[in-house]
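Late entry, written up from scratch paper. The run itself happened at the end of the previous shift, but nothing got recorded in the book at the time, so transcribing now.
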Amino acid sequence: MSIQNSRRFSQIVYEAFHLPGTGAWRWTEGTIWFLIVVSSVLMLLDFFLWETQPDWLRILDKVILALFAMELFLRILTYRSSTTDVFSGGHLWRARTHLSDRLLFLISPLQLLDLVVILTFLPQLRGLRILRLLRLARGLRLFRYSDPLKDLVRTFEENSLLYAFTFFFLTAVVTLGGISFYLVESGVNPSVTSVQDGIWWALVTVTTVGYGDVTPAVLPLGRVIAGVIMVLGMFTLALFAGIVSSTLLRVLINLRGDQFRMSNYTNHIVVVGYNDACNLLLDALLKETSSAQNELLIFAEGERPRELSPDFIWVSGNPGRESELDKVRLSHAKTAIVVGARHMAPSQADATTIMTVFTIRSYMAKQSMTEKRKTPIYIVAEILDPENVAHATTAGADEVIETTRLGFSMMAHAALVPGSGTIMSNVASAGAHSLYITPNPEQSEMTFDALADKLHRQFGIILLGLRNPQNAKVRMDPGDDTPVPTNVELVYLSRTPIPSDAA
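Output as recorded:
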């Protein structure tokens, strides 16, 4: 074989085990998946034929196990050290580097998992063959937007020093405690006849399992050692719990994000952003909407606040990034309410709101589901500085609410017209006569006066004006004789909106 052909063959073998997406890699993975499926079937047969297992079943299982071992051996053998690509050295240094890098690659989480599976050739470890199914999970896209297994492995790799320190601490406590316990108890305790007995007792004690098969004798020194081991066991468990909870938190957050992404929620309302002042908004949403028709979701950074009502779904993420808007299935949502940030200056908060609105519109323009929607997603934006209203509209907000100006205007008007502020608050709240805008239910043209009288008798509403759905212009009290087209929207006060099937 020529040098060129040899290099080409070496490259193909390398691609087969280390370069996902290549033809050789797909062929190798397909073969491994087939062997895993066959192995799983054999495992089920082994379970049902435990007492009368035929010879061919054992032979076939060993053949498959040998193929798994060969695949792992070739994967380790063809692994390329990145160290030698950066640095140069003598033959001895290169050989030592290749060996050490391959050993490090072998003890990585995924390779260790395959190594454990190969060890199932021992009859006592046959139950571990179920771990072969995890190999399928490494290639299958069980989760649409993330890979929890890969995230878990990456977490262990990024925090390997923390886990190594924890296991070293556990090993040191168990070894020193077990040897000390053996030296003190071996002469007087019939349950302790070897160092292994002492180490077993120390491990059981540190992990608070406490089988009771080995206990300290009456010697005071033995009890002192046992007490020290018990106290160190509490520290060890606390150390494990702290490291595991802090390092795996990101994986759990990603899984929660995937949970909503993979759901079938549609026509939901998304509140973008959260602060303490949002509680009034959320309470109003609960009164205005029915959770059976519209799920209420909050999309903001950080963890779910403890005081948040269970009626709201919380998804953690950055609303200013298009890549994260998938988390809340925004392409399937009915409305997005962008809340202004209260922890910064109004101009800066409005800039964040405007950028978020623009990001939502940009995201929706790229989604294939946008063209299939009956109506576009409706975006309501809160603006704190009146000068930024036009900017929010330009960014894509369908409706801009100037909460600060609106509140101060009501206060000023209430000072001149006592009671008007209370009345306007009732109009804006659910439960009383609230303001509604709905399509005209009549199929024929009528005058404003006749339509108002008919709707008042039929539904008890107070007709205030008309709204053009094309340009959103409103005519309040247009006149009794004004003809009302059938394609216009009605502005009225009522306890409940006109039913959609009233026409």
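The chain is about 55% helix and 10% strand.
(Scratch paper discarded after transcription.)
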